[in-house]
């Protein structure tokens, strides 16, 4: 058995405490989002008309623009990834700043459609699940942008120790998760109504 | 045997211990502090839930009684069920795990101690929020499963169900963060050499339980948020008038609710598997089969939720599928029972301690609950007894048999490790007899009441229905069970004041918690033990007791004192338990408390429509999390 004195201290690699903790946290959020998406599909199946009568299929303009901004924000994350080397943290600052900027663009674009659809969350079950799904994705993204901004501040101001490294790694994983969540939400809310002509229509 | 080195121990104590002040109590993060609080708080809530059950049984003792009116009766069965499921059964299992798993796994703390503390504050504040509803005359009264549309804004105006939805969500956050802790602990932080195949069975059950919580609780958290949105801002997820679907709530609730049954049961399986070897002086038979059966139980539990919904008009094919899936539980449960019986069968001796008596009580009671479970797994039978007292009897046999009997075994088994003092065996056995008799007298007759057609959730009944004598018998049983609880409580108080000193290992234990002192030192183990089997203390090369052990030359100098004043633990590889890194854990911190307070403010803001408080709470959460992460205590020491 290896002696403790020869072991590395507080690794941040793929098998570390922090990695496991983050993955478990993302699983929890992912299951919650999956519940909401399943609810959308359940309500769709149980409805005679989906979207309801008098409500058109969702417009794709702003949601698509938001999706493009989000996908573009994922691109520099590859360069932001510092691996397990604190010395590479300085190189992460620029890509994180780009991610935060594009994340802000997503936050501005994704809810625009909610103000233009002509119905509210109280009008019918379709409106309820539509607003809550898009709203939840927006909240998760807003948390990611805030997380990114804090990590950026920390990378810029603190020493290059393992804790900022941990922050950058966690933020990158989280933002990737936000991307997955949005793709799931986009597919459900904006693509599903176009498949098969919609229930009852 | 080598002598101890006090200087090193004092150094460890200084780093791992905390002063006895209120502030240090608030900022404590150590697993024993937090685990004991979880257990103690859950027991207090169970006492409150028990009082409600006695109120209900008193009301039902005779026909047309007026002890409590229908409204208080509705509130009583709602809060009794909610308290027992959310504020007792789940937290006490997690609390036991928090206290004992680091000891059983040979480590010094949980992997995320501050998250641990946050879990406790969320549990405490959530429970207080729920119970404070009585003070405002707004106690929840829509049943512990809160079915809409009954619990929607139309039929339950006022705040009663808001208390329920927000309080339960708060408590579930607690359960989830504790579950994350336990999973990472079991997978990453075991004694060197403790491969997964050498992990104690209690750890296996808690690992699976925690994974189940991680997958089962978020749906209910989301469902509760959706129902609260229906009530607060007028969404119509579950309101049929707006195109919503009440049955969607039932699917979401029971997708959580059936795994919840096993989330409650599996810690009991772990406790029974821990107690039996000690009092038969024999290694458990079929260790690997038992571990596999626990995993299978966890997986199956997500595939049977619809058997709670047979009466809702779902398609026959669907019912057949879920009935068949439900019967599959006989397989893992059968493995467990046969392994326990096989261990007892040719045991060199069976020591009939109080713990062992409760294990036998578990066999009888849980088996009966399982048999009636098979009965109601059949849809035609379920239709006949649905919403009758037969169901009440069934789930009390399952839940009290599956959890409370094992917990009482654990009390007699592990309390000496926590307090350093033994319980009185005569009082222990008297408590068992009273509880066993009282429980069966309460609930067995309720099967018959169900057959005779007495529905659940009615606050009284007429005298000419043939239910009088059976109800009176059931109520008498409840009071005998209540007396048993008093006897058990008196035993605990006596033990704390006058109980004989337990020593490190009063039972000749096989797992690592018996290696260290009773109660354990703040750092658990001065010398982290190495493990070569699933019963390391029964091996020929049993590690020496921790209070006299000395590290091998050159071995573990890093951990036997506290270099740089930090809290260090060994992180191990997931499968083989080989050391992989030294992890530094945070010291005491106020941030978990402030996050808990801020969460409470947020939810109270939602509850009362005071949106400034809501905003303040959100800001508090953000600031607290910022403080939590910005300048961590670990970093200050590096």
Structure report:
The complex is a heterodimer of chains A (201) and B (638). Chain A is mostly helical and 201 residues long. Helices cover 64% and strands 0% of the residues of chain A. Chain A has helices at residues 17-46, 61-74, 77-80, 93-109, 125-157, 162-191. Chain A is elongated. Chain B is mainly alpha-helical. Chain B is built from 20 helices and 2 strands. Chain B has helices spanning 6-16, 22-27, 31-59, 70-104, 113-132, 160-188, 201-232, 246-280, 287-300, 316-327, 330-345, 354-377, 379-385, 389-419, 425-451, 468-498, 557-560, 591-608, 611-630, 633-636; strands at residues 567-572, 579-585. In chain B, helix 3 (31-59) packs parallel to helix 5 (113-132), helix 4 runs antiparallel to helix 5 (113-132) and helix 5 runs antiparallel to helix 6 (160-188). The longest helix of chain B has 35 residues, at 70-104. Mean pLDDT of chain B is 93; it is low at 633-638. The interface between A and B is large, with 47 and 65 residues.
Briefly, what is this?
By secondary structure, chain A is an all-alpha fold. Chain A has 6 helices and no strands. Chain A has helices at 17-46, 61-74, 77-80, 93-109, 125-157, 162-191.
- Secondary structure tally: strands of chain A: 0
Q: Give me the count of strands of chain B.
A: 2
Give the amount of beta strand of chain B, in percent.
Answer: under 5%
* H-E order of chain B: HHHHHHHHHHHHHHHHHEEHHH
Rg of chain B is 25 Å
Shape of chain A: elongated
Low-confidence stretches of chain B: 633-638
Strand % of chain A is under 5%
Helical amount of chain A: 55-70%
The percent range for helix content of chain B is 55-70%
Radius of gyration of chain A: 20 Å
What structural class should be given to the helix and strand makeup of chain A? mainly alpha
């Amino acid at each position: 058995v290896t002696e403790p004195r020869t072991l590395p201290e507080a690794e941040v690699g793929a098998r570390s405490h922090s990695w496991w903790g983050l993955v478990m946290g993302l699983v929890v959020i992912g299951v919650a989002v999956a519940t909401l998406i399943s609810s959308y599909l359940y309500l769709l199946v149980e409805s005679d008309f989906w979207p309801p009568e008098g409500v058109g299929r969702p417009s794709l303009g702003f949601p698509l623009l938001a999706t493009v901004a989000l996908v573009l924000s994922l691109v520099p994350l590859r360069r932001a990834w510092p691996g397990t080397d604190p010395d590479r943290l300085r190189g992460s600052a620029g890509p994180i700043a780009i991610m935060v900027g594009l994340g802000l663009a997503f936050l501005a674009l994704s809810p625009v459609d909610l103000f233009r659809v002509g119905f509210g969350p109280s009008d019918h079950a379709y409106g309820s699940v539509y607003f809550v799904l898009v709203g939840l994705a927006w909240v998760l993204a807003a948390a990611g942008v805030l997380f990114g901004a804090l990590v950026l501040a920390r990378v810029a101001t603190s020493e290059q120790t393992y804790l900022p490294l941990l922050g950058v790694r966690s933020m990158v994983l989280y933002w990737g998760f936000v991307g997955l969540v949005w793709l799931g939400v986009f597919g459900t809310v904006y693509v599903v109504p176009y498949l098969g002509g919609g229930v009852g229509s | 045997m080598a002598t101890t080195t006090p200087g090193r121990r004092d150094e460890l104590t200084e780093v791992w211990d905390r002063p006895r002040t209120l502030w240090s109590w608030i900022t404590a993060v150590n697993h024993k502090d937090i685990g004991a609080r979880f257990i103690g708080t859950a027991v207090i809530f169970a006492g409150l839930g028990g009082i409600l059950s006695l109120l209900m049984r008193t009301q039902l003792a005779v026909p047309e009684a007026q002890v409590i009116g229908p409204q208080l009766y509705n509130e009583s069965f709602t809060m009794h069920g909610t308290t027992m499921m959310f504020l007792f059964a789940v937290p006490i299992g997690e609390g036991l795990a928090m206290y004992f798993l680091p000891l059983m796994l040979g480590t010094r703390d949980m992997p995320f101690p501050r998250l641990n503390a946050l879990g406790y504050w969320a549990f405490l504040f959530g429970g207080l929020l729920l119970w404070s509803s009585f003070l405002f005359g707004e106690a929840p009264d829509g049943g512990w499963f809160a079915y809409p549309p009954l619990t929607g804004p139309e039929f339950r105006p006022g705040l009663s169900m808001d208390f329920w939805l927000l309080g339960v969500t708060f408590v579930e956050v607690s359960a989830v963060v504790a579950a994350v802790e336990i999973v990472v602990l079991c997978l990453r932080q075991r004694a060197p050499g403790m491969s997964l195949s050498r992990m104690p069975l209690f750890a296996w059950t808690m690992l699976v339980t925690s994974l189940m919580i991680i997958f089962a609780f978020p749906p209910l958290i989301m469902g509760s948020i959706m129902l609260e949105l229906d009530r607060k801002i007028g969404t119509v997820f579950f309101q049929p008038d707006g195109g919503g679907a009440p049955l969607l709530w039932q699917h979401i609730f029971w997708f959580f609710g059936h795994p919840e049954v096993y989330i409650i049961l599996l810690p009991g399986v772990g406790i029974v598997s821990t107690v039996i070897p000690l009092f038969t002086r024999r290694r458990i038979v079929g260790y690997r089969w038992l571990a596999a059966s626990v995993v299978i139980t966890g997986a199956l539990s997500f595939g049977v939720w619809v058997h709670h919904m047979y009466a809702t008009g779902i398609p026959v094919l669907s019912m057949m599928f879920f009935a068949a899936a439900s019967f599959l539980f006989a397989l893992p449960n059968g493995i467990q029972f046969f392994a326990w019986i096989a261990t007892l069968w040719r045991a060199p001796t069976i020591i009939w301690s109080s713990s062992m008596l409760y294990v036998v009580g578990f066999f009888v009671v849980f088996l009966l609950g399982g048999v009636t479970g098979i009965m109601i797994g059949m849809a035609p039978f379920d239709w006949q007894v649905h919403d009758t007292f037969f169901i009440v009897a069934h789930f009390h046999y399952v839940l009290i048999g599956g959890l409370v009997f094992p917990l009482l075994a654990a009390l007699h088994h592990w309390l000496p490790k926590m307090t350093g003092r033994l319980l009185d065996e005569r009082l222990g056995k008297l408590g068992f007899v009273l509880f066993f008799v009282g429980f069966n007298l309460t609930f067995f007759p309720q099967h018959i009441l169900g057959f005779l057609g007495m529905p659940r959730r009615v606050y009284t009944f007429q005298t000419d229905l043939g239910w009088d004598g059976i109800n009176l018998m059931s109520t008498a049983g409840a009071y005998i069970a209540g007396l048993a609880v008093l006897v058990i409580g008196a035993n605990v108080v006596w033990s704390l004041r006058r109980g004989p000193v337990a020593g490190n290992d009063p039972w000749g234990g096989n797992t690592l918690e018996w290696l260290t002192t009773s109660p354990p030192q703040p750092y658990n183990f001065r010398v982290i033990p190495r493990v070569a089997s699933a019963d390391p203390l029964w091996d020929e090369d049993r590690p020496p007791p921790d209070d006299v052990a000395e590290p091998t030359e050159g071995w573990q100098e890093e951990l036997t004192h506290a270099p740089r004043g930090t809290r260090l633990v060994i992180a191990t590889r997931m499968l083989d338990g080989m050391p992989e890194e030294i992890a530094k854990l945070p010291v005491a911190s106020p941030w978990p408390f402030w996050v808990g307070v801020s969460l409470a403010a947020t939810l109270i803001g939602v509850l009362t429509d005071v949106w400034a408080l809501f905003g303040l709470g959100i800001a508090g959460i953000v600031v607290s999390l910022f403080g939590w992460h910005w300048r961590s205590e670990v970093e200050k020491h590096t």
